[in-house]
Write a structure and sequence with these properties.
Arc Repressor Mutant, subunit A; 9 strands; single chain; five-stranded parallel sheet; Rossmann fold; alpha/beta
Length: 561
């Protein structure tokens, strides 16, 4: 019996207790090399200042001078560098840097350095595993690919595929590395089963196999593997899958998807023959208890019911969304949209001032329509390591698709306070942080295009939203501060026994949001508990003034309407 688990995320962690960076260490030698190399124009006299460090790295790591400088620059930058930026640091033209490509290629082949290529940047970055070794003052020696057991073979190929997913190596390099790994394991059953395949077919097979081993996934959509192939290879594979032709099917490596309900013909899974072999080899059996499929979600049963008051326009929009998200209506709408050749996912944006009920509205929509919520903390997406933030966002959507497959009612994917990831994209792509944000936003835009569920984002700063996101959100609901009637209802709902006249007076005098009114209610509740003081209109006015001082810097109430 094996429970579902997610694949390991993130870079290899450093054992901080064992980090060695002082004098006489590899890191110290790289620092000396870096200081001597800056602006040196590769002049022998300038570089001679770091002769001892160069000699140390040559003896310890078998690096040439150029290789030592390249690795030192990549470690120091902690980002992607192309040859032009390296040359700029050294004080030489890019054309001269290109004469050292063979030495850089040797670092790539040794998996010390990785080449990244995407829409925003081409360049090199340090392999985190190599950096971890250097910080522990040892040479990085990749694990041998020869004569691997089944578990090690699958882990090694999966590592290459994931590096491609994260844009750390190119599609072409992925195919070459997987081909080389398999040739080093010619006696293995999986080599014999896959030796007639084209490299792209082998990569697809191992992608599906990894999903089965790590997650028990038997319903893989074509868009899940689109990022690891070139456009032409991806289209060719999709065509072969749809027609159920090619060696992947002749060799009985892939079969039909086995998701709950209707699975499109474009979906695919590992064949029963391969599953039986893997189960026996690795001693696994995928039988996930029903209760596990909602782990990690905010379940609708645990959402406390709360009455919300809206202005007329907001109320109409929320009522329409509530009707649409009702399960019977939602399934019918999706089916009709699919028949019409339209996208079936719904992306919604709730925007407006803080405290106007955006997040609480999502919760109440979920509760009333029987939908769980997968909440995303936007700050958890960002990571300082190259490619890690992009991987985090892809994993979020991958998890959401898994929830959609396993839950009877598709949950809501909630990006709360999403200002940072839907703001205008930067044109300054020379800055690594801007590149990261742009890459994250592109991934989200792609995922919204293929979304088959419900995404809701909330933001306080819609004016700074990128126009590409504006087009992707089919429903956009603006939340205003409540009007006088809504505020009166909010006051009376939060403070028991408040008369119509007093509620109207507070509503008209103070331009507070629902969240601010709740703050006032909580303060008067504390007074009641601590001092047994009953609420009075003057006391409530006093707390309202404090709210205005905190948020507007104005301690005078607005008189009139």
């Amino acid at each position: 019996m094996r429970k579902l688990k997610t694949r390991k995320k993130g870079k290899t962690c450093l054992d901080i207790a064992n980090v060695k960076c002082g004098p006489g260490t590899i890191i110290a030698a790289f620092e000396s090399v870096l200081l001597a190399a800056k602006g040196s124009e590769l002049d022998d006299k300038a570089l001679s200042e770091a002769k001892e460090a160069f000699d140390f790295l040559e003896e310890k790591l078998s690096f040439s001078r150029i290789q030592s400088m390249v690795v030192a620059m990549l470690i120091d930058s902690n980002s992607v560098l192309d040859t032009a930026r390296m040359g700029g640091y050294l004080g030489i033209r890019n054309i001269r840097m290109l004469t050292y490509m063979q030495e850089i290629a040797s670092l790539v082949n040794a998996r010390i350095v990785r080449f990244k290529k995407d829409d925003f940047e081409d360049g090199y970055h340090i392999n985190p595993k190599a950096l971890s070794a250097y910080m522990n003052n040892v040479a990085y020696v990749p694990v041998s690919d020869k004569n691997l057991c089944t578990r090690k073979l699958l882990e090694r190929v999966a590592e290459v595929i994931r590096e491609t997913e994260d844009d750390n190596i190119t599609n072409e390099d992925m195919l070459e590395e997987i081909t080389a790994i398999m040739k080093n394991n010619k006696k293995h059953f999986l080599y014999k089963k896959t030796q007639s395949l084209e490299p792209r077919e082998t990569a697809l097979f191992f992608f599906c196999l990894d999903r089965y081993v790590s997650e028990g996934d038997l319903n893989i959509c074509d868009h899940e593997f689109s990022s690891i192939f070139s456009y032409n290879d991806f289209r060719a594979l999709c065509s072969a899958i749809s027609a159920r032709r090619g060696d992947l099917y002749k060799e009985n490596l892939l079969g039909d998807a086995q998701g709950e309900g209707f699975s499109p013909r474009e979906n695919v899974a590992i064949s029963e023959e391969i599953r039986e072999y893997i189960n026996q080899e690795l001693g696994i059996s995928w039988t996930a208890p029903e209760k596990d499929h909602r782990v990690g979600l905010l379940t609708y049963e645990n959402i406390t019911e709360k009455v919300l008051y809206y202005n007329n326009e907001e109320r109409a929009s929320i009522t329409k969304l509530q009707d649409m998200l009702a399960q019977d209506n939602f399934l019918g709408i999706q089916q009709r949209m699919k028949e019409g050749g339209m996208r079936t996912g719904f992306a919604c944006l709730f925007y407006g001032s803080p405290g106007t009920g955006k997040t609480e509205t999502v919760l109440q929509l979920a509760r009333s329509t029987g939908r769980d919520i997968m909440q995303v903390n936007v700050t958890d997406i960002k990571n300082k390591y190259v490619g890690e933030s992009e991987k985090n966002i892809r994993n979020i959507f991958r998890r959401y698709r898994n929830y959609c497959d396993k839950c009877d009612v598709k949950p809501i994917l909630l990006f709360n306070e999403a200002d940072a990831i839907i703001s205008k994209r930067s044109s300054d792509v020379d800055h690594s942080v801007n590149k990261m944000y742009n890459a994250i936003q592109n991934i989200i835009l792609e995922e919204i295009e293929i979304l088959d569920g419900i995404l809701i984002a909330t933001t306080n700063l819609a004016s700074n939203m990128d126009s590409a996101f504006e087009r992707r959100f089919i429903y956009k609901v603006e939340f205003h501060k409540p009007d006088a009637e809504a505020k009166k209802n909010i006051w009376q709902s939060m403070i028991c026994g408040l008369s119509d006249n007093d509620a109207s007076a507070l509503a008209n005098e103070f331009d507070l949001s629902g969240g601010q009114i709740e703050n006032v209610m909580r303060k008067q509740f504390v007074d009641k508990v601590l001092y047994n003081e009953q609420s009075t209109l003057e006391k409530l006015r006093h707390y309202c003034l404090q709210e205005r001082m905190n948020t507007q810097g104005n301690n005078r109430p607005r008189i009139g309407f």
